[in-house]
Please model this.
Amino acid sequence: REDFFVAESNAAAVDWIDRWPDWPVRVAVLVGPAGCGKSHLARVWRTASGAKDLPVGGVASAAVRDLLDDATTCVLDDAQQVAGTPAAEQALFHVFNVMAERGGFLLLTAPSPPPRWGIALPDLASRLATAQVLSLGPPDDLLMGALFAKLFADRQIRPGKGVIDYLVSHGERSHAAARDFVELVDRRTLGEGRSVRLPLVRKLLEEQEGAKD
Model:
């Protein structure tokens, strides 16, 4: 939890997660674009609640009660992927029912709110309509700057003047991309001192962009 930075773009969702188990609604959906931190926040809740993971493929192919075992808290990432697969939709509907029987909690993640998923099963669509939707926006400059500062500090790397500002302006705006870039810096600076200057940062960003082309 201490590695998840709170900003305007995610404050409401973080507050909801931190309030568990005092949720007025027992099902929540974390919604936001790739890289906004919803999977990270879901992991925070998974750790706090001891939640069981429900892989989309597992929900589609396994008997729900066997899959759930005795769990009373569950997480399903990329829940929108059940849409259009009748068996998966039916299975997720049963997950709702089992959690309700047990007085349990369910957390889903998706890039968009449930009404946009294209759910065909009316009973499942009805259940999803009762969920609390928690929207996370893309990381803002303040959040990305704090994230880079923390990632560098964790690896005992000293960013030179202007490095973090440059990364915020030119780097990919996501938690995962920031972690990957700082890891790359760490590898490239082993044995070369622990101070990182702008020329190296520019070079590594250019290399990353070239690798994508």
Q: What stands out?
A: The longest helix spans residues 86-102. The mean pLDDT is 89. Strands lie at 27-31, 52-53, 73-76, 105-110, 132-135, 158-159, 195-196. The two ends are 35 Å apart (CA to CA).
